[in-house]
Q: What sequence folds into this?
């Protein structure tokens, strides 16, 4: 795998190095990389790869140099250009408390490693469904990775910010032409920041107008934390909900850095300023502190789900998947969702409900007017 900004030539014969010391000492932008070969009976370190700084060497020039010095290579890998946004994304991922389906975070990490840069993601736009009976239903998408604000993660992966969602949600609540609000969810969850506050906002708004949420087709972790605050929670027949849990990801890169011949040194103030960094093994004191923080947010998560679904905390802990995703049928059976249905069926059902309510109110008004006219 090429290093950022370095061309890599893997030599056919690991013993085919000459003037290694000169490579390291000169200023030509060339270096040798050591590693352990399984074929080496002593398990010793042998030089395997010559690397060329792309700022000083083109691919053609590097290959010409190898040929002139009689180095045969089995693979030549052009430099991978350094992407600053990639580093920022990885730093954000490793330094964040997550309420997300772990498999989706793994996919995000792989994507961050493979993608060459930022892509413009389509904006998530709320809709107003005008039914045949002239009822008006506001639909707010809750798609992709959830973050508190639009940041490097939302730019890279797309997603929804809790701040932006809250602004749209409050606008629909205050719009007298909208009869109900539907939260259309397809999200694995995201960061914890901003999620408890949005869940509380939705729960407190129940008395304002009917609020419905639907897993269409995936409401994981933070997405379920938010959606469960609605009056009713639907899930599509093929949908899933759950992943109630919180975690922080730490990776220990110290052995990999050692093999590359790199030894980072932190010069810092503050005892805990650089704890849990990826270049050193995770110390037990740092592990205990992170676990305490995770427990705080997990208890908050469980308490909010219990409030939203009007069940004891013990029910959430025992029956709501214990961190697993739950299919539609089991979600309804366990009380995590109220009904199985599609978004279209939900809209149609609300249309029928509101139409009946309007007809009933109209009849009552006509009866009152008839009584007044008679008197």
A:
């Amino acid at each position: 795998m090429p290093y950022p900004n370095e061309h890599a030539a893997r030599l056919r014969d690991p013993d085919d190095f000459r003037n290694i010391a000169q490579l390291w000492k000169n200023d030509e932008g060339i270096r040798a990389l050591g590693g352990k070969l399984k074929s080496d009976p002593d398990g010793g370190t042998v030089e395997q790869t010559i690397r060329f700084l792309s700022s000083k060497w083109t691919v053609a020039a590097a290959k010409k140099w190898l040929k002139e010095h009689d180095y045969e290579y089995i693979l030549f890998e052009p430099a991978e250009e350094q992407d600053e946004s990639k580093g920022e994304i990885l730093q954000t991922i490793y330094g964040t408390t997550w309420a997300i389906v772990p498999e989706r975070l793994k996919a995000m990490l792989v994507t961050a490693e493979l993608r060459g840069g930022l892509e413009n993601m389509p904006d998530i736009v709320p809709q107003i469904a005008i039914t045949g009976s002239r009822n008006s239903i506001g639909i707010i998408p809750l798609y992709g990775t959830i973050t508190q604000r639009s940041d490097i993660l939302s730019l890279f992966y797309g997603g929804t910010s809790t701040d932006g969602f809250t602004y749209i949600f409050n606008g629909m609540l205050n719009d007298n032409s909208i009869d109900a609000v539907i939260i259309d969810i397809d999200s694995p969850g995201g960061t914890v920041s901003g999620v408890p506050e949005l869940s509380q906002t939705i729960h407190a708004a129940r008395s304002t107008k009917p609020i419905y949420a639907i897993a269409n087709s995936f409401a994981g972790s933070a997405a379920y934390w938010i959606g469960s605050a609605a009056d009713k929670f639907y899930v599509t027949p093929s949908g899933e909900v759950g992943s109630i849990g919180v975690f922080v990801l730490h990776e220990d890169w110290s052995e990999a850095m050692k093999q590359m011949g790199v030894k980072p040194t932190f010069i810092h103030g503050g005892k805990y300023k650089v704890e849990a960094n990826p270049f050193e093994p995770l110390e037990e004191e740092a592990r205990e502190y992170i676990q305490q923080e995770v427990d705080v947010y997990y208890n908050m998560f469980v308490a909010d789900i219990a409030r939203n679904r009007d069940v004891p905390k013990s029910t959430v802990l025992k029956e709501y998947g214990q961190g697993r995703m739950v299919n539609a049928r089991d979600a309804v059976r366990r009380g995590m969702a109220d009904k199985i249905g599609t978004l279209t069926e939900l809209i149609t059902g609300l249309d029928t409900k509101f139409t009946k309510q309007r007809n009933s109110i109209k009849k009552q008004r006509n009866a009152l007017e008839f009584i007044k006219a008679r008197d």
In short: Residues 94 and 249 are 6 Å apart (CA to CA). The longest helix spans residues 343-374. The chain is about 40% helix and 20% strand.
